[in-house]
Amino acid sequence: MQIQTTIREDRGLVTLTGSFDFNAHKDFRRACDSMLDEPSVRAIELNLARVEYLDSSAVGMLLILRDRAEEKGKQIILSGSTGTVRQVLEIANFGKLFTVLHADTMGHGLTASCPCCRSPRSFAP
Amino acid sequence: MTERGISLPVIVHEMNASLQRQIPRGFFVSATLAAIDRRNRTVQVWNGGNPAALLVNEGGEVVRRFDSDHLPLGILPPERFEADTRIWQIQSGQASLMLHSDGLAEARSPEGEPFGEARLLAALGQGGDRHAAVIAAVRNHLGGARGHDDISLVCVDCQAD
Fold it and tell me: Of A45, A111, B39, B69, which sits most exposed with the smallest number of CB within 10 A?
């Protein structure tokens, strides 16, 4: 899996491409460390739009990331998941733990489900 | 706990608390728990992280889905855990509750296509021994290959006593 990272103001963006499985473990950890250690970053967004496959070890990596982010007072956002990856996150009810953003079909703007009440919220693009 | 007549929500709450204490961070257990009351003709389900449990009538049609609406076990601390269940009153004469692992739905053919829920529903509609029909359909779909994940299927008869 390829991983690109960018930091823009207080948002860290981690873009993942390919298969998110146990083989990605070291690279994923390294990318997240760089975000977690950066004091200016308040939220880390993982963009999953180009992730084709996500297995239970990847789910575990997301859970560990969330714990570590919570310890540092940072938010984790999962964005852009589609297809089977989105299904995996929905069956696991990850919207209860993470802010999950879905790109809408026009590619304009994003809707999110609020983690505490699951009601939809819209964001300007 | 079941032998002592303890309710499903209490059991699942305890299971989660015990797992959360014992298993390492990042690990979790997807679980479906079902309580079938044959006398009162009810099915009560807690599903955290598994494919939907399916209540199927005599004709093999799904009369009720119990989708995953919880996080898997072992993630949330006890004070945040949600033990609420879904209860259904069985109306048809004969009913079976089918539970399956995600490895069954994801079992891939040699061409890489997953078995999927549509094939599962088609196998259920065939009549006769539903468990055998689904297993045969999955084996056929795998075409001799082994699944990459556990393939588990449970069928429970929910007929009245």
Answer: B39
How far is the C-alpha of A14 from the C-alpha of B1, rounded, in Å? 45
Contact A93 B49 (CB under 8 A): yes
* The length of chain A, given as a count of residues: 125
pTM attached to this predicted model: 0.87
Q: What is the ipTM of this complex?
A: 0.88
Rounded to a whole number of angstroms, the distance from the CA of B155 to the nearest CA of chain A is 21
Task: State the Cα angle at B132 between B127 and B135, rounded to 5°.
Answer: 120
A15-32 tens-digit pLDDT: 999 999 999 999 999 999
What is the residue type of A71?
E
Task: Please say if the pLDDT value at position A112 is more than 60.
Answer: no
Look at B49 and A91 and tell me if their CB atoms are within 8 Å. yes
Are A20 and A2 in contact, with CB atoms under 8 Å apart? no
Please report the pLDDT score of residue A88 as a whole number.
Answer: 93
- Contact predicate B81/B125, CB 8 Å: no
Taking residues B133-159, what's their average pLDDT?
A: 87
Summary mean pLDDT of chain B: 91
The string over A2-34, giving b where at least 16 C-beta atoms fall within 10 Å of a residue's C-beta and e elsewhere, is: ebeeeeeeebbbbbbeeebeeebeeebeebbee
Helix (H) or strand (E) holding B138: helix B130-142
* Spatial contact of A78 and A89, defined as CB atoms under 8 Å apart: yes
Rounded Cα distance between A96 and B158, Å, is 32
Does any CB of chain B come closer than 8 Å to the CB of residue A59?
Answer: yes
| Cβ contact, residue pair B26, A96, below 8 Å | no
